Amino acid sequence: MERKNAWNTYGEEDxxxxxxxxxxxxxxxxDCKTERECAARIREMAEAAGYVPLEKxxxxxxxxxxxxxxxxxxxxxxxxxxxxxxxxxxxGMNILGAHIDSPRLDIKQNPLYxxxxxxxxxxxxYGGIKKYQWAAIPxxxxxxxxxxxxxxxxxxxxxxxxxxxxxxxxxxxxLSSEQLQKKAAxxxxxxxxNVIVGSRPLKDTEEKEKIREALLALLKGQYGIxxxxxxxxxxEAVPAGTARDFGLxxxxxxxxxxxxxxxxFTSLLAQLEVKDPAYTSVCLLTxxxxxxxxxxxGMQSRYFENVTAEVMQLAGQYSELALRRCLQxxxxxxxxxxxAFDPNYASAFxxxxxxxxxxxxxxxxxxxxxxxxxxxxxxxEYIGQLRGVMDDAGVCWQTxxxxxxxxxxxGTIAYITANYGMDVIDxxxxxxxxxxxxxxxxxxxxxxxxxGYGAFLKVRW
Length: 461
Description:
It is a single chain. 28% of the residues lie in helices and 24% in strands. The protein is built from 11 helices and 22 strands. The strands form 5 sheets. Strands 1-2-3-13-4-14-20-16-18 form a 9-stranded mixed sheet, with helices on both faces. A 6-stranded antiparallel sheet has the order 8-7-10-5-6-9, with helices on one face. The chain has a 3-stranded antiparallel sheet with strand order 11-12-22. The chain is globular and about 75 Å long.
């Protein structure tokens, strides 16, 4: 069944709202290119909307009541927001879950070296990327450097017009006859993703590596960073520049990190705007999804469960059994991006079961790979309920699979929260160029996701 194009449903007032939400989103992904930057902005937006830190609620209030709003930030990389509902939490929560990490190049712990009259930084790529896409484009350096005394230096170099940019060189076409015979996976290999950062030598010195020493002197003078401080740094090379309107009609947005900040942002907006929820509404924005959701800030950690227990305790509703019932009775949208049909690569898709730009938010009953390996595979009853919720709210939506059956596949955090026994389905926004430095989304789909998430948080099951 072919779904309608959302653009065909809009009047003038709708278009004003589409552009308003799209511009807020464009600014968000332009400013927030790391999980730490996202978490910091989420804190600002939450507090502006009346949320208070969970630790403050524990320390000063000692209790939570229906209508109260609290948030928690874990290790500056994971954020959870709770808006306490009127129903007992044991009956379950309405959860919007997304991730705020994106594919990138992480600077290694011993990165700086000199070769060929240049200074370079070695990297280790994070998440699934086509490595050749990261060569010959301008890069920026973002991140945090932590010194032995615990003080930190925040860096974001390459975003302002007056800033320098960085990059990875590619072999000139004139000498590429051998390179062009290689498979795409090894045209540029991981150990060759080295970022060029300088070429000017230090004068009047006996040091052998004068360019490297010049860079170290610059880092110390400008940022107070010693070479060994790289050992405790989290620096990321990301595409430089702002997200831009895409297309002559300005109907799309091209920008870095839309997987999955497009779902994180729309989920956050819906959470901040929900009024008087019956079921406690939750916005769960995690880290590490692109590398398997492992680690203390990933979905596989116990942090979400622990914070939920603390919120229930403050609400006077905690017991171990009540916590288990709360998690099992919850409903969740695992909000992650889907692959949009690309006419340039039509053979990778099955047209009746793929997402299209402009047709609204996407529901994926299952992801996984090939024989649904690693998939959550949501139950039909839950999907039936969601169909009613979205249609009643007038939300444009579509269903999709991630390409042809034997083509490949992918995963989200859905299978992890499903381990609690809750109902969860993958939903989100379709992208072109997913996992590339510059991904493309439809403004209409951003708006419909925002509306759909808002409708979900209001549901009484």
